[in-house]
Each structure stands twice: as structure tokens, then as C-alpha cells.
Amino acid sequence: MTLFLPVTLTAAGAAALLNFWLGVRISRIRVSNRILHGEGPNGELTTRMRAHLNFTEYAPITLILIALIELATGPTIWLWGFAAAFLLGRALHAVGMVARLWMRQAGMLLTFLPMLALAGYAIYLGAQAPKQPPTTVFKIRPVG
């Protein structure tokens, strides 16, 4: 049996690229200003570091929720939509940290709403689970 999660794989791949981009933005400031350690006197470096950290605070739990819901329900159009909205929100937030306030605010909205919807749906799915012993996708061999 092959376990394939297209929504999760796509979202995780996109999140990895976004994470890489956020790291490159920090590195460019460090190199151009010769700041090897810490934040230096440059406020822009601090802002970009915070945008990167903010991404790493929200992305893991949201990707986990996407994966678990996809395991429980399969890939659905709304799951694709929530994953895309979340990733767009993270990108808007990062750009909005150094650009326009409305982008940052829209980014947070597009982060929080999908995450909360996914969390609520995960709780609902968990509460609806049949009352039977759990199954596993792993093959278990007897010892001995």
C-alpha cells in the first residue's frame, strides 16, 4: 500500500521554498552589511529575522493539520484552498513586515483563518472517529 498525500506534499514543498526565500532575505542583509552574528545596528535585519521566525512558528502545526486531515478525508478541494490561503498569508506577512501594513494584516488573517478552520475540523474529525481499535499503515511482525 502506498501512502500519498498530494495536498501535504505540495504545501510542504511550497513552505520549504518560502522558508528558503525568507532565509535568503536575511543572508543578503547580513552579507551586504557585514553582520556575521546577531542583529547588528540594522533594524531591517531584525525585521526580516522576525518574519522568518514568525513563519517557522506557524508553518509546522498547520502542515501537520493538513497532513492529518488529508489522511482522514483524502485530498479535497477545500483542503487545497486552505493550504494555498495559508501559504499566501505567510508570504504576504513576510513582505508586509518591510513593505505595507495592509499586506502584513492580510497575511495574518490568511494565516489565522485557515489554521483555525483546520484545527476545528481536526477536532471534529477526531470526535467522530469510530469506537474501534486503531489501525496502522505499518506492518507489525510478531517477535520471536
Features:
single chain; 144 residues; mainly alpha; elongated
Structure description:
The chain is mainly α and 144 residues long. 76% of the residues lie in helices and 0% in strands. It has helices at 6-33, 43-73, 77-98, 101-128. Helix 2 runs parallel beside helix 4. The longest helix has 31 residues, at 43-73. The chain is elongated and about 60 Å long. The two termini are 26 Å apart. The model has no long low-confidence stretch (mean pLDDT 88).
Task: Give a brief outline of the structure.
With 144 residues, the chain is mainly alpha-helical.
Radius of gyration: 19 Å
Through-space gap between termini: 26 Å
- Write down the oligomeric state: single chain
Secondary structure category: mainly alpha
Which range does the strand content fall in?
A: under 5%
Q: How many E-type strands? A: 0
Which parts are unreliable, with pLDDT below 50 for 5 consecutive residues or more? none
Number of helices: 4
How does the major sheet shape up? none
Average pLDDT, all residues = 88
Helix content: over 70%
H and E string? HHHH
Shape: elongated
What's the helix and strand layout?
Elements: H1 6-33, H2 43-73, H3 77-98, H4 101-128
Helix pairs in contact: 1-2, 1-3, 2-3, 2-4, 3-4
